[in-house]
Amino acid sequence: MLCMSLLFLGQTLLSISTLFSFWFACIARFFVGLGGKNISVSRTTYSSDWFIDRELAFSLSLAVGVSRLGAITVMAVSPMVYEWTKSIAFAFWFGNVFVLLSAICGLIAILIDQHVIAKSNYRRISKKPKEIKLSDLKHLGVGYWLIAITTGTWYMSFNCFIYISTKYAEDRFNMSYTSAGYLAVIIQY
């Protein structure tokens, strides 16, 4: 619940930041990132409590897929909202409604989880966490490191382009902001 609260606080501050400064917006984005990334970790933990083996893999991939679908939707809808209203503040507040909807869905999931646990007498086993040392990195195989490097370099090169693709399409091809936003969605996904 704390993650969702941080995310909502950050998005609200980001919406308010349109009245203030760039640095206020940076602080707001810090809270958005803090909440959003921790929600990703919580989602993985929640899934691992309820699914095993192939079902766990499917659950995690479905969650990532839905997350990506949300990112596509934001990239497509945000330019349209801005074009309709000519207000960046309205576009941020529009996003705030969806963050609130997400928090409500998360709260409902927590309540359902607690209800099922109470009704079934399920007890989460508290295990003593294994101590992790820096020296454990040497036990990871070559395959792991190749996948990690491939993923990291792909995201670094691809995301750099995605973040500037809208402005690039506007300048290079004389596209409108909205059309350039649609192009970025097509390129990214």
What does this structure look like?
The protein has 189 residues and is mainly alpha-helical. The chain folds into two domains: 1-126, no CATH class; 131-189, no CATH class. The protein is 81% helix and 0% strand. It contains six helices and no strands. It has helices at residues 2-16, 22-50, 53-85, 88-120, 142-173, 177-188. Helix 2 (22-50) runs antiparallel to helix 3, helix 3 packs antiparallel against helix 4 (88-120) and helix 5 (142-173) packs antiparallel against helix 6. The radius of gyration is 20 Å and the shape is globular. The protein starts with a helix and ends with a helix. The model has no long low-confidence stretch (mean pLDDT 81).
H/E element sequence: HHHHHH
How large is the count of helical segments? 6
| Principal-axes shape call | globular
Could you describe the largest sheet, including whether it forms a barrel? none
Distance between the termini: 30 Å
Q: What is the typical, i.e. mean, pLDDT?
A: 81
* pLDDT < 50 runs, ≥5 residues: none
Summarize the structure.
The chain has 189 residues and is mostly helical. It has helices spanning 2-16, 22-50, 53-85, 88-120, 142-173, 177-188.
